Amino acid sequence: MDESQDAAELRRLVRQIVGDTADPARVREFDDAEKFDEDLYAALAHAGLLQLEADADGTHASAVSEAVVLEELGATATSLAVSLVVQYMGLSLLCSHGTAQQREDVLEPLLAGAGRVAFALTEPDGGTDVARQMRTRATRQDDGSWSLTGTKTWITGASDCRWLIVLARTEDAGASAIDGITMFLVPRDAAGLDVSILDTVAIHSVSTCEVVLDAVVVGPGAVIGEEGRGFRQVIGTLNGERLNAAAVALGIARGAHTEAVRYAGDRQAFGRSIGAFQALQHRLADGAVAIEAARGLIQRAAAATERGDQSASVLTAMAKVAASSAATQATDDGMRLLGGFGLSREGDMQRFFRDARLYTFAPLTDEMIRNFIGEHHLGLPRSY
């Protein structure tokens, strides 16, 4: 599927901003320092790349546009791309379910790049099965406010965000574990909210955090959407999150593959470039095929999402598996091809290799996504 002129122009814009603001040396510097690149984020916001087609009246951004931005960032400033996956999800939730006041107070500033949002769902005892295992509770007070207590973990960007979207159980689960969960908008500086940064092996330029809520009180206006149906509301955004994760993984694959091809052309051994060796050519050719196959699925899934086709969920699931597989393949082959140079922190391959592993299990494990494909595309019995 060929890219539209609008998408191609958007891709060129992202490349220009990254080239002007965050060259590879700067990306490595921020990765080593484990710092968020505020200047790059501000440049993207100034160019309208946080907002895209979205607005505070509830219009959503184009799935195609988000995928283009995230692929380009995934191939360069990967941690920034990971942060934007969360931002785009938060924007989508507020567009769909935010009150008029929430859209004015929170959504409008987010669209302009004034602050960031973190999405606090995962808990220590629950990853894939988080709804059934959710221990965070929100209790209504006599004055209509809510008191939230619990622990969230693996929360991206919680250390320096302005708001958190927190899911908490407000009533016992009924026939379905996903009912009785409500979504809340919580200020980062709320009393009783404590954030600690976890030491992770990858995605260093955006924090990964544990969030502890100890009787954090928020007003009645903090509820996002319908009380007791917060998890169902989140499920409605999962296609977009999976698609955006796939786009970042595709970018990682492309960035690593480009570096490997360049090295293969430059590196000399036995009187010629190592790119002339058949075994290495085959690996690079397979990587190119995997990248283009993943891009084709992402483009089909994005187009189906925008049309509202029923096929979007399966295509998105396939795109996520294809892109994460392409990323792990391209980065593993790249490390093998570069040899000792791949281990050097002066180059980008080791960072791509580390960062790619995130999308084998986030936002949902590839195994669980394969279960979904088996059930919804192949018509096989549910496996979990």
Can you describe what's shown?
The protein folds into three domains: 112 residues, Acyl-CoA dehydrogenase/oxidase, N-terminal domain (Butyryl-Coa Dehydrogenase, subunit A, domain 1, Orthogonal Bundle); 111 residues, Butyryl-CoA Dehydrogenase, subunit A, domain 2, CATH 2.40.110.10; 142 residues, Butyryl-CoA Dehydrogenase, subunit A, domain 3 (Up-down Bundle), CATH 1.20.140. The mean pLDDT is 96. It is of the alpha+beta class. Helix 9 packs antiparallel against helix 10, helix 9 packs parallel to helix 11 and helix 11 packs antiparallel against helix 13.
Annotate the secondary structure layout.
Elements lengths: L4 H17 L2 H10 L4 H9 L16 H12 L3 H20 L2 H13 L4 E4 L9 H4 L3 E4 L5 E11 L6 E7 L11 E7 L5 E5 L10 E11 L4 E2 L5 H6 L2 H29 L1 E2 L2 E2 L4 H30 L4 H27 L1 H4 L5 H8 L9 H11 L8
Parallel strand pairs: 1-4
Antiparallel strand pairs: 2-3, 3-7, 4-5, 5-8, 6-7, 9-10
Helix pairs in contact: 1-3, 1-4, 4-5, 4-9, 5-6, 5-9, 9-10, 9-11, 9-13, 10-11, 11-13, 11-14
Main attributes of the structure:
single chain; 384 residues; alpha+beta; Butyryl-Coa Dehydrogenase, subunit A, domain 1; Butyryl-CoA Dehydrogenase, subunit A, domain 2; Butyryl-CoA Dehydrogenase, subunit A, domain 3; 4-stranded mixed sheet; 4-stranded antiparallel sheet; 14 helices; 10 strands; 52% helix
* Count of all domains: 3
How many E-type strands? 10
CATH architecture annotation name of the largest domain: Up-down Bundle
Work out the radius of gyration. Answer: 21 Å
Low-confidence stretches: none
Compressed to H and E, one letter per element, the order equals: HHHHHHEHEEEEEEEHHEEHHHHH
Secondary structure category: alpha+beta
Instruction: Note the main sheet.
Output: 4 strands, mixed
- The CATH homologous superfamily of the largest domain is termed Butyryl-CoA Dehydrogenase, subunit A, domain 3
Q: Shape from CA axes?
A: globular
Helix content: 40-55%
Q: Numbering strands along the chain, what is their spatial order in the largest sheet?
A: 1-4-5-8
Strand content: 5-15%
Keywords: FAD, Flavoprotein, Oxidoreductase
InterPro entries: Acyl-CoA_Oxase/DH_mid-dom, Acyl-CoA_Oxase/DH_mid-dom_sf, AcylCo_DH-like_C, AcylCo_DH/oxidase_C, AcylCoA_DH/ox_N, AcylCoA_DH/ox_N_sf, AcylCoA_DH/oxidase_NM_dom_sf
Domain Acyl-CoA dehydrogenase/oxidase N-terminal: 5-113
Domain Acyl-CoA oxidase/dehydrogenase middle: 118-216
